[in-house]
Design brief:
- This protein has a 5-stranded parallel sheet with strand order 2-1-3-4-5, sandwiched between helices.
- 41% of the residues lie in helices and 9% in strands.
- The protein is α/β, with parallel strands linked by helices and 247 residues long.
- Helix 4 packs antiparallel against helix 5 and helix 5 runs parallel beside helix 7.
- It holds the Pfam family Lipase_GDSL_2.
- This is SGNH/GDSL hydrolase family protein.
């Protein structure tokens, strides 16, 4: 005797997904690191893995890496991309503009030194970064002509107008200003290439440093490379919702 087993429709796999970018994509600060990723410090709690786990893409590759600049993406991260790639995500540009050095200078230097270093980074972001982003975005599109590309930005680092031990209010404001300048440049270049810009400043709002409910690490002694990066909650509640809403 034959029996008939009825099953529901098969759930379609998500699009082939490739994650690119710098430490904000890799997940520095999120813990749960993939030991095979070495100095790239890729975290299994970072937003690319959260999206992968939720959507079961037909394939998944993560080539993001701590410290990456635009040319690192172009030269070292695009191998998994092809015409079948359906989704690409990335954060890139902060290291080009020297944001890590901005933070170091502002933590260790005077208000004036911090303001001057931020101004230098902003000038670079406005005058030099656009062409570097264009080259990287062109390379991504050439390798993945059919993909939806979601370019994620950077959060503000500090909640303003609250008492906070540590850096001065002047430094807080200048560091957040630098984030705004970099994000505006990235958003404009992403739009020019037909990419989606995912603005995370909203999901991090009231969860920056000094908020009392921080989604970011302040200065971390060991490992120092977690400093000023999103926590696991910053990825799950800050970055992942923005990628999910735009993918």
């Amino acid at each position: 005797m034959f029996s008939l087993v009825l099953t529901g429709p098969a759930q379609a796999a998500g699009p082939a997904y490739v994650a690119l970018g710098d430490s904000y994509s890799a997940g520095n600060g999120a813990g749960n690191y993939d030991s095979s990723s070495g100095d790239c410090h890729r975290s299994l709690s970072a937003y690319p893995y959260l999206w992968k786990n939720a959507h079961a893409p037909s394939s998944f590759a993560d080539t993001s890496c701590s410290g990456a600049v635009t040319t690192d993406v172009t030269n070292n991260q695009l191998g998994p991309l092809n015409s079948a790639t359906g989704l690409v995500s990335l954060t890139i540009g902060g290291n080009d503009a020297g944001f890590a050095d901005v933070m170091t200078t502002c933590v260790t230097g005077s208000d004036t030194t911090c303001v001057n270093r931020v101004a230098q980074a902003e000038t670079y972001a406005q005058n030099t970064l656009p062409a570097r982003l264009d080259a990287t975005y062109n390379a991504i599109r050439a390798k993945a002509p059919n993909a939806k590309v979601v370019v994620l930005g950077y959060p503000h680092m500090y909640t303003l107008n609250v008492f906070c031990v540590g850096l001065s209010d002047t430094k807080h404001r200048k560091i957040d200003e630098a984030s705004d300048v970099i994000d505006s440049v990235i958003a404009a270049r992403a739009a020019a290439h037909g990419f989606v810009f995912g603005d995370v400043r909203g999901t991090f709002n009231n969860h920056e440093l000094c908020s009392g409910d921080d989604y970011l690490h302040s200065l971390v002694v060991s490992p120092s490379w977690e400093s000023y990066h999103p926590t696991a909650t910053g990825h799950s509640s800050g970055y992942y919702p923005v990628l999910n809403a735009n993918s």
